[in-house]
Structures are given as C-alpha cells and as structure tokens.
C-alpha cells in the first residue's frame, strides 16, 4: 500500500497518471466503506490541496472547489437559488460529518441517498474533471451513472462543481418522504418552472438505483432511468 498527500493539483495529477489510487477527501464515505478490513489500496490524500477548498464566482459560474465542505456551503454567502443546497448540507449526517464531508466526495461516492445530488441537479450543476492530459466538464446528470458508479476515469480528479450564474427561475417543493423511515435524500427540490405550462419537473437521486413505483401520481421513468416527478405548480401569471 502506498500513501501520498500531494501539495499541488499538478502533483496529484502526476501521481494519478501513474498507477491506481483511491482518493481520500473527508473520509466520511471512504472509512465506513472499509468496514473492518485494513486499507490495502494505494491512497491519495487530497487534504493537502488547499486550492480545492473554496467557493468562488466567475463571470459565468458559481464554483465549489472539490474540497468545499458542507459547513463551508452552509456558511457561504450565496443567492437564494442555493437555499435547497444549503438545506441539503444541513441534512448531511451531523455537524462533525458536515465539517469533514465534501461536495466532491458526495458526488463521487454516488450513493442513491446522497443529499447533495438533487439540489445540484436542479441547478444544472456540472463537474470539472482534470487529468494529466487535460480537463473536461461533464453535466452532473451524465456524471452519476448509477449506484456508486460515475463517469470519472481512473486518472481523473474532480476539481470543482460549478453552477451557471443565472439559473432559471425556480420553485421550492418540500418532499413528503420521512427521513426516519427511508434512507433517501429528502432535500426540497428546485426546478425551473415555466409560467406557460404551469409545470415543473424534478429529479430524485434516491430513485436512481431502483425502479420507481408509481406510488404517487405524477411519477414517470425518464429515459436515463431517473425518476421524474411532474407537478402542477402555481404560476405567477
Ligand atoms: C455518520 C454519517 C452520516 C452521513 N450522513 C449523510 C447524509 O445524511 N447525507 C449524505 O448525503 N451523506 C451522508 N454521509 C456520507 C458522507 O458524509 C457524504 O457523502 C460526504 O459528502 C462525503 O465526502 P467526503 O469528503 O467525506 O468523501 P470521502 O469519503 O473522502 O470520499 C468519498 C468517495 O469520493 C471519492 N472522492 C472524494 N473526493 C474526490 C475528488 N475530488 N475527485 C474524485 N473522487 C473523489 C473517494 O475516492 C471516495 O470514493 C454520512 C456519512 C457518515 C459517516
């Protein structure tokens, strides 16, 4: 087993290009996944990469560095479009878990119960993946392929999650799922609402790994296997 804690992204990418590494961020999914077994993988610890711990803005995007924690997100000065993401952040584990767990870890772990996924999907989030050979940007909907499966290639590091600066107008819908009764994300969902159709569509990450039963009117299976919930909403007009 090898252990490395690079200090720069370039150093991390060079290591990733040379061998198979398991990435470690906050460790809140990594360690529970190990169970009682000793760690045998080569571990690339991302906690030396200060450049990845930020929440910033460009002309076109809000950018969450991969190591931005849920506490960072809760405390960040963000516009109301991010309220659902902040609510999701407060749902993650406990304060200790929110202090360690990162946005990238939540997405790369690709749990069907990941609380960060629904609000980020509805904000049209994209992930930035870097490798020694370059950078690519992938829509979150295309990044998460299924239960614990993502489109990340072995030599790639998720460096940031970005959200367009001008997300379309949104509505907030409270989920009726009982957290104690089902292990699923229950963050309020947001989705652009069209005043002409008076409809909004939502994606629920918690339904990706299993077929969605039409236990409530309005659920449909979409082409990529996501559950789609079509709701009638009050239009402002
Ligand atoms: C007690 C407890 C309660 C929890 N409750 C919740 C909850 O309510 N809701 C919820 O959504 N989650 C919950 N979690 C899960 C976890 O806290 C979150 O998913 C967290 O965001 C994971 O981030 P991390 O930095 O700890 O990831 P890690 O455990 O470090 O990594 C998770 C995975 O992502 C990969 N990875 C991490 N960073 C990168 C990167 N930059 N690029 C590529 N791959 C990367 C790792 O290799 C690993 O496969 C809970 C965990 C615990 C222990």
Key features?
237 residues; alpha+beta; 5-stranded antiparallel beta sheet; 3-stranded parallel beta sheet; 15 strands; globular; disordered C terminus; binds flavin-adenine dinucleotide
Question: What is shown here, in short?
Answer:
It is built from 8 helices and 15 strands. It is α+β, with helices and mostly antiparallel strands.
How would you describe the overall organization of this protein?
This protein has 8 helices and 15 strands. It is an alpha+beta fold and 237 residues long. It has a domain of 63 residues. The strands form 5 sheets. Strands 4-5-10-6-7 form a 5-stranded antiparallel beta sheet. A 3-stranded parallel beta sheet has the order 1-3-2, with helices on one face. The radius of gyration is 18 Å and the shape is globular. It starts with a strand and ends in a 5-residue tail after the last strand.
Our Rg estimate from Cα atoms comes to 18 Å
Distance between the termini: 62 Å
Number of helices: 8
Global structural class: alpha+beta
Task: Compute the average pLDDT.
Answer: 81
Strand content: 25-35%
Q: Any ligands, ions or cofactors bound here, and which?
A: flavin-adenine dinucleotide
DSSP strand count: 15
pLDDT under 50 segments (min length 5)?
186-201, 205-218, 224-237
> How are the strands of the biggest sheet laid out side by side?
4-5-10-6-7
Query: In which range does the helix fraction lie?
Result: 10-25%
Largest sheet data: 5 strands, antiparallel
Following the backbone from N to C, one meets helices and strands in this order, namely: EHEHEEEHHHHHEEHEEEEEEEE
Shape: globular
